[in-house]
Design brief:
alpha+beta, seven-stranded mixed sheet, six-stranded mixed sheet, 21 helices, globular, disordered C terminus
Amino acid sequence: MPRKSKTEIQLRSLESHGFYTGFDKENMLYAVLIRSPSPSGKLKSVTAADLPEDYHLITAKNLKNSKTITLNKVQAKVFGFGNISYFGEPLALLCGPKEQKTITLADSVNINLEVENLETALNNVIEKSKNEEDNTTKDFSQFVEQINEMPSLNTVISKSQSEKETDTFVAQRIIKYGLYKTLSEYEADKALLEGKQVVEDTWSYELPTPSWQETSGAFAYFEDKNLHIYIPTRWTSFLQKNISEVTGLDTNRIFIHKTRVSNIFPNGLWRTTLIGVQVAVASYITKRPVKLVLSPEEQNLYMSPGFETKITYKTVLNPEGRIETLKADIDIDVGFSNPFAQELTDRIAITACNYYKPLNMVVKAVAHSSKNPPTSISTKSVASQAFFAAENHIQKICDNSDFLPDEIRLINSVPDPKTEKTNPFPFTIEIENLSQTITQAIINSDFKRKYSSFHMEAIDRLSEDSRPFFALPLRGIGISSGYNNSGYRGVTTFSYDTKIEVTLTQQDKLIIKAIKPSDVIQKIWKNTASEILQIPKQNIIIDSNFLIEELPEMPEESFGSIGIMNEIIKKCCLDIQKKRFHEPLPLRSKRGIPQAAKTKWEKDSFSGAPFFTTSFATCVVEVEVDTYTYNEKIKGIWITADCGELFDENAAIRTIRLEVQQELSLLVKDKTLSCDELHIQFIDSKNKSGQVGGLVHNTLPAAFSSAMSLALAAQLTRLPFTESEIYELITKRTQSSMNITKHENKKDEKTE
């Protein structure tokens, strides 16, 4: 067999193949993570007595080089040591040749923790006393002896204080506009809120764990002094760097084999890297193939997508239907750590007002750490909670005013002409066909007629004299608008920029050096290049093999959208075409996003156009609730979108349909909803192509919860919910109505 050249050894493919669970080798070891049973405390040791032959326990003590991975000054321990960070923190990895036996042996691993606080110490003494055979005759001196073994009060207070300090602010963003910018918040509140009808509520949307084709994990083996790892990573260079630092291996000896990401909300760049390092270390130490597959329970507890966010709004509407005042307080729990905390906070703060332009605004977004498991980032869903909160609150504003939902949206989508020139709104969200998109969705769904009818029925149902026929289903309809962006200009972690190299060879082959996208996007790229250079599509190759030193430093999802990438390829091809008949082949062109496109954002003032391109959608959802079973049913979904220039409308429709099906499994806990009718329409637009994916996730949840709130005549403030919560909402609302009626009757009796 011919030996591979040095260039071949240094090449790394960024193309995805298969799922990691589908790869294995002879003599493979199955791995299980040993996790902390406590959210805090000091780890003294992790041991396993009398392990059978060929079973290995790997802890931080086995790591001879780096014991952590680091990004943005945030560290994550490969295996726990010192103070415990959170419940379920990986402390060790146990691996063995038989999967079930490895799982059983994991339960016998001994985790020795120091007593960490007064409450735990007292509980330990009490439990020890209970376990004595004769508790009634127990010598009191033994109890005193156990009390004396407890840590000193000073130590307990010191440790308790350090635990509280883990719940600290890690990022903050405050945005002020209008009177909130010129006056103190107290003075502005007094001028804008006192004596006004203030609409207030708190909203939360927890990204539920979707159904997984495979849970998180990785497979690795060490062979011929090379370490190979199969993992669904989207950040190859970062994973390779950290495996090298922890194992001490040269990067030339590390081969990352990308596998497919199997879910709609990937587990995050940060946590996937940590799992990859843990499995790579196990294989390197044991010199055996090792596979780690998280259990469904671990997936739900430690790898759930997103982060917990609560958004509280206070708003005031003026007589013209314009939002006069908007106050938003955003609380973000990023878990024990998140190296992307500042970017998360910034992007949620920007999205807190959606595309609306209130006359006065203050947004306070604060991210804090906690004893929950660490979180990561997914640019697909980073701001979905803010869209959910903003659109539900707009609906609540409508419920407290004489304006229809579409009227409020259209009025507040444009700046106030009186203040636009003297006091421009801080953010420019470039949506050219906003009004047309909303209006078309209203027409397609017959929203105005249905909303008026269902709204009147709900009011009638709440009135004291109304006795509607109980068997009739409760009906509601909701609307939500939102955008999806490509390329964020206000970067703190990623550059959201990439350069693409295109080469025309002497054989008239065109090589596009880029990470291979989906088949649909590959087709779009090839069509663009073929049209400009007049070469057959079969002559166009997308090469995803990179030299180690040329691996993209940024994660794949930060590279931008179809439109951005296609525009760069177009510029490269035009550049080659100009030189084609004047210079010898091969011809190369390497282009990125033009500098002018990056300067539309003012970093210091945190204002301007935050995104390179923006797609926009309006979603209408009609629901029905059975009054006997409390089962909800979606009667219809209407989605109208402006995604700019569509390269393949059929592919875009398929994307929307797939995302709707995925979303229907996330709205109600432990249930997948069905939909009778789904209508999709794209606005004819010549704008720059925007991202289709993610629009459903940013609009459908809020439209669904608004429709359910109307049907139930009770406010639904969070998703996902359970069907028992529907029953509780109706019961609570009914009881409240009955109490009001009784109170009114008593008043009438007294009057008589």
